[in-house]
Design a protein that fits this description.
The chain is of the alpha/beta class. The protein has helices at 3-16, 27-40, 56-69, 84-87, 93-112, 131-138, 143-146, 151-160, 186-201, 231-243, 263-266, and strands spanning 19-22, 44-50, 72-77, 115-117, 207-212, 215-220, 248-251. The protein has a four-stranded parallel β-sheet with strand order 3-2-1-4, with helices on both faces. Strands 5-6-7 form a three-stranded mixed β-sheet, with helices on one face. Helix 2 (27-40) crosses helix 8 (151-160) and helix 5 (93-112) runs parallel beside helix 6. The longest helix has 20 residues, at 93-112. The two termini are 36 Å apart. The relative contact order is 0.13.
Length: 268
């Protein structure tokens, strides 16, 4: 990896003087926050937005990670569940969600003379990412993307810095578990969160539960699909999901892939 790119990121952070990092606890935002803390110390503030679409597991993990790294970290509650553009879960939901989150962060940054930065990278231009438009419209700084870091380079840098989550799988918000057009309710979000907790406790590392009304479609890493060939294990998962209110429980034969509910949109 070019050391020049790393230096450019550091120089951009130093030039800002005071920054707010949108901190999800994923490897991208963790790397950016760690580098910003190295450059600016307490003038780097990492903020995790609790908008009701982040699982409690991920939220608690972000808080603990920030504490372990010594980040100047805080939680910012942002209520978005009542906004119709988001609640109705249309294909551009992510645009409105990002617009709401980063507008709040910008208001906070302006009140204290900070600049908002976030961890998007080069690979985020490949899929269906309407939220990227919101970041562009608001003028949010994305240094890793600006200097053309891809995911592999980010993981490599994070590993060299000793970040504990350098190889952690991506974990987007819970709204991505529902087909577009399916309204998002607290009850449905909680159900899919509890379903994924069951898979996590069963030892799966990379997975999603896609919620299609009464049907739960389980995606796991292709290498872990054979675990479901055990009839006893299948029955245990089936029973646990049905106790959550699902009538049908299925395994996606193709396995986990990012953005599987965007496949119809990308094909149009």
């Amino acid at each position: 990896m070019s050391q020049d790119k790393r230096q450019q990121v550091r120089e951009e952070i130093r030039a800002a003087g005071k920054v707010i990092i949108a901190f999800s606890g994923g490897v991208d935002s963790t790397l950016l926050a760690q580098v910003a803390m190295q450059e600016l110390g307490r003038d780097c503030q990492a903020i995790t937005v609790d908008n009701g679409f982040m699982s409690r597991f991920e939220l608690e993990r972000a808080v603990e990670l920030a504490r372990s790294l010594g980040l100047n970290h805080s939680l910012l509650p942002v209520e978005m569940g009542q906004q119709p553009e988001i609640r109705n879960n249309q294909p551009r939901r992510c645009y409105f969600c990002k617009k709401a989150i980063f507008s709040r962060l910008m208001d906070l940054a302006q009140s204290q003379g900070s600049q908002v930065m976030e961890g998007s990278h080069l690979d985020d231009s490949l899929g269906y990412r309407p939220g990227q438009q919101a970041l562009k419209e608001l003028g949010i700084s994305s240094p890793l993307k600006k200097y053309e870091f891809n995911k592999e380079e980010i993981r490599q840098w994070a590993r060299e810095l000793g970040l504990p989550n350098w190889q952690a799988p991506a974990s987007p918000c819970l709204a991505t578990r529902f087909p577009y057009g399916k309204p998002l309710s607290p009850e449905h979000l909680q159900r899919v969160e509890r379903a994924e907790d069951i898979l996590r406790q069963a030892g799966f590392k990379q997975f999603r539960v896609r919620s299609h009304g009464d049907l739960a479609r389980i995606e796991v890493d292709p290498e872990e699909r054979p675990r479901f060939f055990d009839s006893i294990f299948m029955d245990q998962i089936d029973l646990a999901f049905k106790e959550l209110g699902y009538l049908y429980v299925s395994l996606d034969l193709k396995g986990y892939r990012m953005g599987s509910l965007d496949e119809k949109i990308k094909g149009e």
